[in-house]
């Protein structure tokens, strides 16, 4: 796996997911617009995932990532959002290419609902 990025947290997330770390082709595209998160569209051997990396000290803003996770999972279960592939303590990733999705790391399936959390 070869990932070109200057974001060490993104590399850490990719390396923490065994299926991703073994991918032959990894592409990362930064998605601007996040207020408290850094967002990326990752393509792992062509399969899109949306990755949200939590901003620093967002808890002082009252952001509760556990509540956020519950809400995202409920939306996915209701067919209103992407499925959560993984939820890491400081990162959030969703399956899919979620340009409109909104830290922890979570990965979402971009093919299903279009975003990752």
Description:
- The protein is of the alpha+beta class.
- The chain has a single domain (about 10-110), classed as 2-Layer Sandwich (Phosphorylase Kinase, domain 1), CATH 3.30.200.20.
- The chain is about 20% helix and about 30% strand.
- It contains three helices and six strands, in the order H-H-E-E-E-H-E-E-E.
- The chain has helices spanning about 10-15, 20, 65-75; strands spanning about 25-30, 35-45, 45-55, 85-90, 90-95, 105-110.
- The chain has a six-stranded antiparallel β-sheet with strand order 1-2-3-6-4-5.
- A hairpin with a 5-residue loop joins strand 1 and strand 2 (about 35-45).
- It starts with 7 loop residues before the first helix and ends in an 8-residue tail after the last strand.
- The model is unreliable at about 95-105 and about 110-115 (pLDDT under 50).
What's the SSE blueprint?
Elements: H1 8-16, H2 18-21, E1 26-31, E2 37-44, E3 47-54, H3 65-77, E4 84-88, E5 91-95, E6 105-109
Antiparallel strand pairs: 1-2, 2-3, 3-6, 4-5, 4-6
Count of alpha and pi helical runs: 3
Number of domains: 1
CATH topology heading? Phosphorylase Kinase, domain 1
Helix content: 10-25%
Rg on CA atoms, Å: 13 Å
Short synopsis of the structure:
With 117 residues, this protein is α+β, with helices and mostly antiparallel strands. The protein has helices at 8-16, 18-21, 65-77, and strands at residues 26-31, 37-44, 47-54, 84-88, 91-95, 105-109.
């Amino acid at each position: 796996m070869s990932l070109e990025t200057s974001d060490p947290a993104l590399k850490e997330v990719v390396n923490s997911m065994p299926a991703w770390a073994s991918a032959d082709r990894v592409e990362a595209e930064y998605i601007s617009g996040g207020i408290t998160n850094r967002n990326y569209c990752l393509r792992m051997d062509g399969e899109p995932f949306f990755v949200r990396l939590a901003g620093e000290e967002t808890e002082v803003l009252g952001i509760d990532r556990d509540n956020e996770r519950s809400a995202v999972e409920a939306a996915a279960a209701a067919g209103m959002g992407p499925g959560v592939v993984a939820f890491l303590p400081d990162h959030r990733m969703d399956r899919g290419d979620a340009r409109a999705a909104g830290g922890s790391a979570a990965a979402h399936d971009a093919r299903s609902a279009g975003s990752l959390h």
